[in-house]
Write the structure tokens for this entry.
Amino acid sequence: MLRKNIIHKSLSKPVLFVGCERLPFTIVVTVGGVLIMAYQTILVFILVLFYYLVSIMLIRRVNEHDPQFFRCLMRYLQFYQDFYPANEFYPGKPDKSYSFFD
């Protein structure tokens, strides 16, 4: 008889805050808060509320399809190099000639 292994969603699914990853949500809220504190007018308040709604909806839509999209994007931007040298060494040690007599 085969035994069933139960995989709980809490162990395999990433934790999202309001359906968004924490970093983009924090950036959106911080930028909106700074704008409200800097200008303190009703027009800016209304525009920031609209900015909150639109940006959180966009982040949630992206995170529905790939819950770790922004984490992968940040890793790509952090470790991307413009040039990967064509040799077997990583990360780009200088080429040496491999001759039998060196």
About this structure: The chain has four helices and no strands. The mean pLDDT is 83. Residues 41-78 form one domain. The CA atoms of residues 20 and 57 lie 9 Å apart.
